[in-house]
Design a protein that fits this description.
mainly alpha; 6 helices; globular
């Protein structure tokens, strides 16, 4: 038996993600946390696009899964922090990757920058 993904199901998943981010924000973040506001805004735009009939791409689903991991009850683990960082690097958002690294590993700017640059070179096969 095949399972078909409907547009209603997709919309429901994005609404769940939006609620999860909102709930986690109240518990652990300040309202002024720019990363959280950007994440909530991104989900809101995806919901609006889905309502308008725009097809959600595989890349958008990948981003939604990363956000789901980021705001899940289990939190970020060492396994999925690298997925989040790699996605930031692939999306040409190096500063965001450094912020995520610093947030998870509780380190200074120089250490985070060096780690991200090393990861970026590893991903490109330069090391």
């Amino acid at each position: 038996m095949e399972t078909y993904v409907t547009s209603d199901w997709i919309l429901e998943q994005f609404h769940h993600l939006r609620f999860r981010i909102s709930f986690k924000t109240k518990a652990e973040h300040t309202v002024a946390d720019l990363d959280v506001l950007n994440d909530m805004d991104w989900v809101k735009r995806q919901i609006e696009y889905a309502d308008a009939g725009v097809v959600i791409t595989r890349a958008k689903f990948k981003q939604a899964n990363l956000l789901w991991d980021k705001y899940s009850d289990t939190g970020i683990t060492k396994d999925n922090i690298w997925n989040i960082i790699d996605h930031c690097i692939d999306s040409k958002r190096k500063i965001q990757a450094i912020k995520e690294y610093r947030k998870y590993f509780q380190c200074g700017l120089r250490e985070a920058k060096e780690a991200i640059e090393t990861r970026e070179m590893n991903n490109k096969g330069m090391v």
